[in-house]
Write a structure and sequence with these properties.
Blueprint lengths: L8 H5 L5 E2 L9 E11 L11 H11 L5 E8 L4 E4 L11 E7 L6 E7 L5 E7 L37 E3 L11 E15 L11 H4 L3 E2 L2 E2 L9 E18 L5 E11 L14 E7 L5 E2 L16
Antiparallel strand pairs: 1-8, 2-3, 2-14, 2-15, 3-4, 4-5, 5-6, 6-7, 8-9, 9-12, 10-11, 12-13, 13-14
């Protein structure tokens, strides 16, 4: 899955892989930040041993054209979001800024497009129905309860309540400032097996479990074959130990990894090969929002 565009790997290397069964702390849900985003795949340059996280970490540190930057003002209590570079482009040729208001009787969205000449156009429309209406008795305002697919709601937040704390080592300097909460999800997934359709790689040993048009492959090559393999995904949140005035704790970053179970030759990939996506929220983070953050600029007319 190549999605749009994840604090150094050394930090994570200092942690045990065991988990502690504790509920994650309440996150701070009203804040502004400059989100830094990096992605890498198992085949990316600097992905040593097929570990995309090594490459993504390097890209994050290098910055520049290797990362995307998106400035965000987020109110997860009332349900308001202001985000520029919504498309998460590394080198945007135009800036799309989106304002979402789920707190209105009819949820509303404003999209402001600024082109290379600086000209701004704006349009507004009602937001589509959400899977779980935010603010209702069954769905109170919580991180991850909305139906919109963006980096601060259902894409990231839906996993946080189910995470458990990763055990820490006492001598880790990183651990003195931050905690890690993680969810590992392993489930059978249908994926195309590219090696089955390639005469150079196809063998019945590799393709005997592939399915073509609903039936097992019986010869090589066997094109457009799919097979069921276990895909491992990890959802990891870095949380500050320090508490805000209201007792909540700052979310520092979100990292999503996806294990790559198949090679292009049709064989199983080595353990540790994975794609990696990092959303780092530390730069320019501050708690609190203002009402005027969630309105189009004065003088801009929205169609």
């Amino acid at each position: 899955m190549k999605s749009p565009l994840f604090v150094p790997v050394l930090f994570f290397g200092a942690l045990s892989t065991s988990t502690i069964a504790t509920n994650p702390p309440a996150p701070t849900l009203t804040f502004r930040t400059s989100m830094q985003i990096a992605e890498a795949f198992s085949t990316s340059p600097q992905a040593v041993g097929g570990d995309g996280c090594l490459a993504a970490e390097a890209y994050l540190q290098e910055g520049g054209s290797h990362t995307a930057v998106s400035n965000v003002v987020f109110d997860g209590v009332l349900g308001r979001l202001h985000q520029d570079n919504t498309a998460l482009k590394r080198i945007p040729t135009q800036n799309l800024t989106t304002i979402g208001r789920w707190d209105l009787p009819t949820p509303q969205e404003w999209d402001e497009l600024t082109d290379a000449t600086g000209q701004v156009t704006c349009r507004t429309e009602p937001l589509p129905p959400v899977y779980c209406p935010n603010g209702t008795k069954t769905c109170p305002p919580t991180f991850g309860s909305w139906g919109g697919l963006n980096p601060f709601t259902s894409v990231l937040g839906m996993w946080y309540p189910n995470t458990t704390k990763v055990a820490e080592l006492p001598e880790s300097e990183y651990d003195r400032e931050y905690d890690l909460y993680q969810l590992e999800d392993v489930r059978p997934t249908l994926l195309p097996n590219e090696g089955c359709g390639n005469p150079s790689f196809c063998t019945m040993e590799k393709c005997s479990t592939c399915v073509h048009n609903g039936a097992p492959c019986t010869q090589c090559p066997c094109e457009k074959c799919i097979m069921t393999v276990n895909v491992t995904r990890n959802y990891t949140y870095t949380v500050a130990k320090a508490r805000q005035h209201d007792g909540t704790r700052q979310l520092m970053r979100f990292q999503w990894t996806q294990g790559i179970p198949l090679q292009k030759t049709g064989g199983l990939a080595k353990r540790g090969e994975r794609d990696c996506f990092i959303f780092d929220w530390r730069k320019g983070w501050s708690a609190g929002v203002h009402d005027d953050d969630f309105a189009p600029p004065s003088g801009v007319k929205c169609q």
